[in-house]
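Researcher: Hi, I'm a grad student and pretty new to this. My advisor asked me to get structures for two proteins we've been looking at. I'm not sure of the right format, so I'll just paste the first sequence and hope you can take it from there.
Model: That works fine. Here's the first sequence with its structure tokens right after it:
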Amino acid sequence: MPVMPAYFQALTRLEPQALRGLLFFFFTLNIVVFPLGQAFRVAGPLVCLVVLGLVYWRDFAACPLPRLPARYLFVLFFACVALQTVFSIDTRNSFSVISPNLLRAFVLPFIAMECVRTEKNLKMLLIAFAFTVLYEGLDGIWQYIYGFDLIRNAPVDVNKAINLSRLTGSLGGYRVGDYM
């Protein structure tokens, strides 16, 4: 019989409310560190997914998902995406386009649904978004003035810049506006 690591055994012993608090912490942390690099963008949802799985395992009946009247639309949505990927002209290219977004686009709504239970939770997440947008915008202004990225600790590459007149922050493209 496989032995679970000690940290996972400790997580499974936590009460559902403590797991929800841990999920909220990791989700907020994911929001704040998202612009700092690809590793954070990939690892954040993975960590949240593990905790979300534990929350669903320990107390699924108290989660918002089973009480959501339109929860079956998620299954329909995932089936549509899967069918469009499988039956596209270039299946391999379609899967390579969608695979980086599987954890971010498809898992984060379920995490957010679990995290936002009260107005206070929503305000805390909005503060985290505002803080992230603020430091990312300040980094973009710094880049524009000095030509140096504080977050990446590197000079701005003029050859790679999409549009030097647009403040991109450390995300390196138009995604700062999308993130805001």
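Researcher: Oh nice, that was easy. Here's the second one.
Model: And its structure:
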Amino acid sequence: MSVLSAWLEGRTSASEAWDQTLGKHGLGDWLSGGAVSEKDALIKRSKGFVQSGISDLQDYGQSMLGSDGFLQQQEESKIKALGMNVGNQLSKIDNYANTVAMKGNMATGVDLTTRSEQSLIDNYKLSLGDINMESQKSQIDFIQDLKKQKTQLLMDYSTATGDAYKGSASGDFDDFIDQYS
């Protein structure tokens, strides 16, 4: 009755009195399922942001890390380019060997081409190793970035609500990350 008294005495507006007695904070809200405080609404909205954010991170991670993901395609592209380059160089070595053989200097040509081919193969193996290490580093860096973004989502939730996130912030996302770690 204090709200009604305040309204009758002119200490509050009619809309405030309505909200407190029959409207959004009073009997009307109680009849429609209970009052929801601004903090509860903020927590609910923030949980939704965290859940959708983590889901989006997982989808993005899949597009980058999956078997047909960008990082895999990038590695395959580099290996293909390296193979084409080595193939071109081997072709040049073979052409040189044929030229030397036609001039009749077979022993020198065979020895030189064999060493050139071996050197090229050794460099190819080293380059494949470099591509593999670079690919692994890119994957590790990407996973770390996903983890940082998840942590930022949880920190933003905490900042917005003043509470630690009480929902499930791991589960599928962490299982997803673990398969690539």
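Researcher: Is there anything I should tell my advisor about the second?
Model: You could mention this: Residues 51 and 169 are 8 Å apart (CA to CA).
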